[in-house]
Design brief:
single chain, about 190 residues, 11 helices, mainly alpha
């Protein structure tokens, strides 16, 4: 089972519902990772117990924003992230016939899987590679060439991203890595910048 939120019910949903996992990755920006990946469970509850991509994509945008903004808000940017979730759900509903797992199960190799992920709204190169690594490392989704397609995130034994978190200890190592990367980036800034 995935260990991303510290909440056994939310982690169980991520482990069994491909759309929940995909939406957690969508929301994993500018908020703590645990909060981002716990949000799909809260969203499911607020939507009456279902995460249906067609139903979410068909909602009135303002209605979904209200669901996101209800206290406690699902994200610090409820309007923009509700819109992003709606866009991703529309893509899953139309391109993948409502089956989020088809994004990866239909990919013949890592390169095609990366292309599928990068075609999703809000998935740039880095987010797509991290999610590809998460699928490979933790869920056994390993089409030929997946490690190369995931880049450094696919390296065995690395602690770079959410793809590597399977325990509190691994979470601490990923946080240390990210802090070191931020410090290195700050050190590269020109003086006075």
């Amino acid at each position: 089972m995935l260990w991303l939120t510290g909440d056994p019910e939310a982690d169980a949903l991520l482990s069994t519902d491909p759309l929940a996992l995909l939406l957690g990755m969508v929301l994993d920006q500018q908020i703590p990772m645990e909060r981002a990946f716990a949000a799909p469970a809260a969203l499911k509850e607020r939507l009456g117990g279902s995460l249906d991509p067609a139903a979410i994509s068909a909602m009135a945008p303002d209605a979904l924003v209200e669901v996101f903004a209800a206290k406690p808000a699902l994200h610090r940017f409820p309007r923009s992230m509700a819109g992003r979730v709606q866009e991703v759900c529309a893509t899953v509903a139309t391109t993948y016939d409502g089956d989020a797992s088809a994004i990866w199960s239909t990919a013949p190799d890592g390169k095609a899987l990366l292309k599928n992920l990068k075609a999703l709204p809000g998935f740039g190169d880095q987010k797509a590679k991290i999610f590809l690594a998460l699928l490979g490392k933790q869920l056994g989704v390993r089409p030929p060439g997946w490690e190369q397609a995931a880049g450094p995130y696919g390296e065995p034994g690395s602690h770079r991203s959410v793809a590597d978190i399977d325990s509190p200890e691994a979470l601490a190592k990923v946080r240390q890595f990210k802090q070191a990367m931020k410090a290195e980036a700050r050190d590269r800034l020109p003086a006075g910048g």
